[in-house]
Amino acid sequence: MATNPMHQFNVYRIGPEIKIAGIDISFTNASLFMVISAVFICVLLFFGTREKKLIPSKLQLIGEMFYNFIAKMISDTAGSKAKPYFPFIFSLFMFVLFCNMVGMLPYSFTVTSHIIVTLILAIFIFIAVTIIGFIKHGFGYLKLFVPSGVPIVLLPLITVIEIISYLSRPVSLSVRLFANMMAGHTMLKVFGGFVISLGLLGGWLPLSFSVALTGLEILVAFLQAYVFAILTCIYLNDALNLHH
Amino acid sequence: MVDYKDFKTRLKIAKSKLKNNSESKDEKKGKFMGNAFKLSTEFVAAVAVGTIIGFILDSWFGTKPWLIIIFFFLGSAAGMLNVIKTAKLMQEKD
């Protein structure tokens, strides 16, 4: 069964079974790898910011690079009003990026290749952005669903379409990340399986593909974390600035 | 001797330029794929959400096939709207 490409996505329990009110909240391998990613982020940022030198060390340089990258992204897409949400978007980006990157290590588990993880992240963003919009604009936020300059006859139809489009945000956000990660990792495993089954004679071609795909996967891992964060910024921009 | 040094630096500059170009090409390729995938998921997600809303409303009101059909088409329209919005955003960035 080790050659089954979907085997890597199995979630299994580590340690004792914990049940509270009929809900299984046992510690699984998925939870383990989330903890590992979080620890990686904490270690990187802790040691990166411990000694604030004028000429930065390598870790400090990496930390500052991430900071600048996210700060620039937020000010470019959502404007200066979004500055208070920097910690939220920064932690979101770092978590998704490190989950993706930790998943690239052999024998590890990719947390973001499960739709439930990405969907919960996306629904959390969706609800948070909606609440922020209503706090900032009151019921004026509903203007988002009523574009200006539409004839009265078409207004009900357009409003329904706009509402469906709004509700589809968390779905597209989560499916994109999940599908990219799952497809990429399945492909890597399939080519890995080819190497074993073709043996010493024919295994070199899939092996070279495998190497190239690993590079592509690292690019995708970064790109998807970036897309996840930038779309959050765009949604936040809609909620904060409301220009339609 | 001077000529030789001059040639060396020029070679270095030309090599670095070549490297930069190929890197940006790879990056562009990745971005194109990302954009294509972005547009397709935007469309599919809206259709799926529309259909699910239709299905739920159908089982609420007991109008079995009709609302799911209507909301499927509304979802498709929302998907096109999503694609247009995303494409506009991409154009603004360039």
The termini of chain A sit apart by 54 Å
Given the structure, what is the number of helices of chain B?
2
In the predicted model, the low-confidence regions of chain A spanning at least 5 consecutive residues are none
Number of strands of chain B: 0
- What is the H/E order of chain A? EEHHHHHH
The largest sheet of chain B, given as strand count, sense and whether it forms a barrel, is:
none
Structural class of chain B: mainly alpha
The geometry of chain B reads as rod-shaped
The gross shape of chain A turns out to be: globular
Assign the structural class of chain A, choosing from mainly alpha, mainly beta, alpha/beta, alpha+beta, or little secondary structure.
mainly alpha
Q: In what range is the share of β-strand residues of chain B?
A: under 5%
Count of helical regions of chain A: 6
* Quaternary status: heterodimer
Largest interface: A-B, 22 and 25 residues
> What is the share of helical residues of chain A?
55-70%
Average per-residue pLDDT of chain A, rounded, comes to: 86
> Sheet with the most strands of chain A?
2 strands, antiparallel
Radius of gyration of chain A: 22 Å
Could you give a short description of this structure?
The complex is a heterodimer of chains A (244) and B (94). Chain A is mostly helical and 244 residues long.
